[in-house]
Specification:
Layout lengths: L1 E5 L8 E9 L6 H9 L3 H8 L9 E5 L5 E10 L6 H14 L7 E5 L1 H6 L4 H15 L20 E5 L5 H26 L7 H15 L2 E5 L1 H7 L2 H7 L7 E7 L12 E5 L1 E5 L19 H16 L5 E10 L10 E4 L5 E4 L6 H14 L4 E6 L4 H6 L4 E6 L1 H14 L3 E3 L17 E2 L7 H10 L6 E5 L5 E2 L9 E2 L4 H9 L6
Parallel strand pairs: 1-6, 2-4, 2-5, 5-6, 9-11, 9-14, 10-11, 13-17, 14-18, 15-16
Antiparallel strand pairs: 3-4, 7-8, 8-11, 12-13, 15-18, 19-20
Helix pairs in contact: 3-5, 5-6, 6-10, 7-10, 9-11, 10-15, 11-14, 13-15
Bound molecules: ligand BES, manganese (II) ion and zinc ion.
Length: 503
């Protein structure tokens, strides 16, 4: 997709299709009124006829009555007061998805209505719209087949229209947005691939290819070394499958090197290539979705690749503990006591609470490799979806100052988070008779307990992002297909880039 920023008015730009974001309530003054006049009243008649409703992401196409653009796509952005960066990405993704199966080679996008809604930051909007268009073209239907009905079309050229803006600044921002969208697509495809395709070793192979491509340090720890090192929780999950576990480590920058903010940041992602529940086996209903339980690992692997493209050499460590959680003669039994890498004795009373086990050892190991700040991302609980739904990621963290830094990166990235509390009183509900703690408690407050469990394995500033429901959509929306969404990839990239050295 070629990119071009133009500072002309939208009615002067030739294209196959011009996207016109429309705020509600619709007022035909300013640019929209002028565009309507030049299109012979087409826009107004569409709205009067009721073809474009005021609901955000609703769309309608129109002919252009002699404008240099061949067709118009009007898209409602709803109340401009509630437009944030996430909405801007989704408005762009919706427009692109709406074009599936159409012949659009040159796609023009009028940025001004979105820039006005975001307080005039046209460069930010250019980055978010370019990213959104490319993210909107993401199509998991073609992972395993060559052709599908109404295939997504990536336009040859994306023309961003921003009258009066600084074209060079917008181009830079848009190019960066495209790199982020490409990283998100990488995370999504890795995650969407099925479990008979992506085993822990296959994910490690993918990581090796990424390391070669972007000149990253890589280490892959197999079962022998993991056992020797004392990763008892990681091995407790990994030992149940014929596909051996892999602790995947990728690093840009030097060992223990601090970034411009004085951090050695580690991003740690849950990589359960299939979560059957193990001996505490899951109900069969929708078990097929548990191939997505590796999404956190795919997200951190893609994020370090994106950071390596945007700011090579930025100190960053990615850790992806990767396993299959399977029942079998070698599986961990409920009630087994294992020793974690940090020495704690853990009583595994539920083998389906496996994510926290592999993450706990991965977090300890990241600290051993010099991490001073840690963020983990995981499809950790069903409870987070019941609490928050799929529009906001649940998050925990301590100290508050580091949580706030991660939340600020999320805001820059256009991703929503909601902080949940680490209530001390619930720690005692995870006490074990034989060990130091159990890996789950009673279901009441189960979401909070998942955070408290992870906290036992970190001694440094740490944030946990539970993407179990935001990271994977069960059904398509206007702006995204069913499957992996790429959630938190952009946040991790923004967080790491905050520590990039200038230049
Ligand atoms: N991978 C699941 C969480 C999950 C559930 C992700 C639904 C996406 C959709 C996780 O390993 C799990 O099984 N969690 C249990 C924890 C419980 C046993 C303490 C859960 O949420 O039920
Ligand atoms: Mn599980
Ligand atoms: Zn799981």
């Amino acid at each position: 997709m070629q990119l071009r920023v133009v500072t002309d008015q939208p009615w002067d730009v030739p294209a196959d299709l011009l996207v016109v974001p429309v705020a509600s309530p619709v007022t035909f003054d300013g640019g929209l009124g002028e565009l309507d006049r030049r299109a012979g009243g087409e826009l107004k008649s569409l709205v009067d006829f009721g073809d474009l409703n005021a609901k955000r992401y609703s769309t309608a196409t129109a002919s252009t009555g002699g404008l240099p653009a061949r067709r118009l796509l009007l898209e409602s952005i709803g109340d401009p007061a509630t437009v944030d960066r996430e909405v801007v990405v989704r408005v762009a993704a919706t427009a692109e998805r709406r074009l599936a199966g159409r012949a659009v080679r040159r796609l023009a996008f009028w940025l001004s209505p979105l820039a006005d809604a975001l307080g005039g930051d046209a460069a930010a909007v250019a980055g978010l719209v370019a990213r959104g268009v490319l993210e909107g073209s993401y199509d998991p239907r073609t992972i395993y087949r060559d052709s599908v009905d109404s295939p997504m079309v990536v336009p040859d050229e994306l023309i961003l229209i921003a009258p009066g803006a600084d074209a060079a600044a917008l181009t830079t921002a848009a190019e960066r947005g495209i790199v982020i969208a490409e990283g998100s697509a990488l995370a999504r495809t890795l995650s969407n691939r099925s479990s008979n395709d992506v085993s822990p070793e296959v994910l490690a192979e993918e990581a090796r290819a990424i390391a070669r491509k972007h000149d990253l340090w890589i280490d892959v720890i197999g079962p022998e070394r993991a056992t020797e090192l004392g990763m008892g929780m990681f091995m407790a999950v990994g030992r149940g499958s014929d596909n051996p576990p892999r602790m995947i480590l990728l690093r840009s920058g030097g060992e223990g090197e601090l970034d411009a903010l004085g951090r050695h940041l580690a991003i740690v992602g849950k990589g359960v290539c299939f979560d059957s529940g193990g001996i505490s086996i899951k109900p069969s209903d929708r078990m097929e979705e548990m191939k997505m339980d590796k999404t956190g690992a795919c997200t951190v692997i893609a994020a370090i690749a994106t950071v390596a493209r945007l700011a090579p050499g930025t100190p960053l460590l990615a850790v992806a503990p990767t396993v299959e959680n399977m029942p079998g003669p070698h599986s961990t039994r409920p009630g087994d006591i294992v020793t974690a890498l940090n020495g704690k004795k853990v009583d595994i009373i539920n083998t389906d609470a496996e994510g926290r086990l592999i993450l706990g050892d991965a977090l300890s190991y990241a600290e051993r490799l010099g991490a001073t700040h840690l963020v983990d991302v995981a499809t950790l609980t069903g409870a987070v979806g019941r609490a928050l739904g799929n529009q906001v990621t649940g998050a925990f963290g301590t100290p508050q100052s580091f949580y706030d830094e991660v939340a600020a990166a999320g805001a820059r990235a256009g991703e929503r988070y909601w902080q949940l509390p680490l209530i001390e009183d619930y720690v005692s509900e995870m006490e074990s008779w034989y060990g130091d703690l159990t890996n789950s408690g009673s279901p009441e407050g189960g979401l909070i307990k998942s955070g408290l469990f992870l906290r036992e394995f970190v001694t440094r500033p740490w944030v946990h992002l539970d993407i179990a429901s935001t990271g994977y959509y069960r059904k398509a929306t206007a702006y995204a297909p069913r499957g992996a969404t790429g959630a938190s990839h952009a946040t991790l990239v923004e967080l790491a880039l905050a520590g990039a050295r200038a230049g």
